[in-house]
Amino acid sequence: INPYGYHLLRKNIDLYNQLDGLFVDGILMCIYIRIFYKYKITRRSFDMTSIVPKLLDYVIENDKTIYIVASKQEAVERAVEIIRECYPAVKIIGYRNGYFSSEKEMRMEAEHIVELNPDFLIVGMGVLMQEDFLFRVKKNGYLGVGFTCGGFIHQTFKSEINYYPKWVDKINMRFVYRMYKEKHTRKRYLLAAFLFPLRFIGERFFWQRYNKLLCHQNEK
Asked: Chain-wide mean pLDDT for the chain?
């Protein structure tokens, strides 16, 4: 969850409550959680600056498998090529784009994934759609581990596996760099940067009081 996704989370809390776990993707959220909740949170993003190298190493060392549903077909094909070039021993047993022409096609893909039973399922279809697809696969009987991957596949296709320069990662300016590289992210990032602090701080001080008031009224 990053500052942009936080707004969608609050609007779709029942959906997110079904997840086994959430990672905080964004240094701004980490800072606010540390300040206002006193929790020491470490940023976890699905990219080469965070989770991906550890996941790929684990897959190789433990002879596990990966299946990918993300981005456009051209992008996912090229991204898989790049990953295999950098990690020759990785077992990617299947992949496809994240666009479905019908409910039937989505259902068939979910069933196909369950039949293959990959150890890890990586999904990048945009916020809410990707979570919904993971739940769909799980309901069909999938027993592996599913990750949402944000823009990782698209970014890998556009550059190389290391999307962010080391100096950008070091000073925590990844969102600025992404706005520079990907114009379509600018509006949502700037909007999130403005709205997120207002909503987060407001909910920190007023949400719990509001819930207590509701409980008290219900008891009456």
From this structure: 90
The Cα-based distances of 162 to 36, 50, 52 in angstroms read 33, 11, 10
Question: pTM of the prediction?
Answer: 0.89
* Cβ-proximal residues to 181 (8 Å cutoff; 6+ apart), any chain: 158
Question: Could you tell me whether strands 120-124 and 145-148 are parallel, antiparallel, or unpaired per DSSP bridges?
Answer: parallel
d(CA 175, CA 163): 12
Q: Mean pLDDT across the stretch 59-77?
A: 97
Radius of gyration of the chain (CA): 19
pLDDT in tens, 23-49: 999 888 999 999 988 989 999 999 999
3 state DSSP class of 60:
helix
Residue type, 104: K
Strands in 145-148's sheet, in edge-to-edge order, are 92-96, 66-70, 120-124, 145-148
- 213 pLDDT above the threshold of 90: no
Q: Are residues 124 and 156 in contact, defined by beta-carbon separation less than 8 angstroms?
A: no
